[in-house]
Automatic annotation (TrEMBL):
Keywords: 2Fe-2S, Cell membrane, Disulfide bond, Electron transport, Iron, Iron-sulfur, Membrane, Metal-binding, Oxidoreductase, Respiratory chain, Transmembrane, Transmembrane helix, Transport. This is Cytochrome bc1 complex Rieske iron-sulfur subunit. Gene3D superfamilies: Rieske [2Fe-2S] iron-sulphur domain. Belongs to the Rieske iron-sulfur protein family. Its cofactor is [2Fe-2S] cluster.
Amino acid sequence: MSYGSNDGGHGTGVAQVEGDPFADPGLPHHTPRRTDIDARAANRAERQVAALFGLSTILTIAFIVCFVAIDKEESMYVVGLGTVNTLNFALGVTLGGSLLCIGFAAIHWARKLMNAEEIVDYRHPMKSSPEDTAEVLEKFRAGVEDSAIPRRKLIWTSMLGAMALFPIAPVIALRDLGPLPHKKLRGTLWDDPNHRQIVHANDERRLKPSDFALGSMISAKPNDLEGHDELAKASILLVKLNPSEIRSKELADRGYRGILAYSKICPHAGCPLGLYEKNTHHMLCPCHQSTFDLADFGRVVFGPSARNLPNLAITVDDEGYLVAKGGFEEPVGPSFWERGDA
């Protein structure tokens, strides 16, 4: 039993047994489309494609208008969907419709106006020869010509308008991410003189040095936080060390009688700290085990953190309550874009 080959390169590629009475019929004869032989039909198809591109442009503009004009809290009833958010529904319809019109226009353009000749292309080695490369370039140039772009100015112009305007929609949507942080990442509420009083994190009572025993630790925060959403960055830990165990006079002067204040936020990934080893004065992060020496300016002694734990300078006011002298000297928390060495 043996197998025959394709007939002159025009068969379907199906192997045939010798003597098989069912011959390979090959490709059917090419039948021209109406737009190939009727100029009026071709012009009508061109207008249809341009109309779809134009409708895409209108829907993109409608997306932008809806994004700006519709209230985010507004809702509406849609048959089959029930009550939905009006803004989400409008954005979905306009943006989806814009994409759909571009797709329909491209398909209609290809089916009605581009070259419709059937071509058989056999497999070839993966590495192209110079002749094949030249042939591909020639086919590309022929494809540009077959697409009718040079001759169909209306399609070309309307397509450019739709494709150029469409990217504006997702750019406008970036506005919904919220305002830029600007300098907010570099400061905390401790920078504000109205928020320098140190209060207990749980009951918000003001703290005095007498509230601390040697080796104790208390979570604290600034006073008057009602209406503020920056508690996480401003949270601190107060620990009392033996003044003789503090490694430098500079650090001792930033505390009060052995009481030191540090940010509660790990500089590595922003996890809250709280695992304090009294004997070693080490603060351990529960997430990735970064360890900081509180007796030595919060120096990193182990783990992935690239920066020391920020220290907050404190003192007491005229009534004997603990207060912050000012804000942190460096940004608290994990790294952010353009932080640099600050």
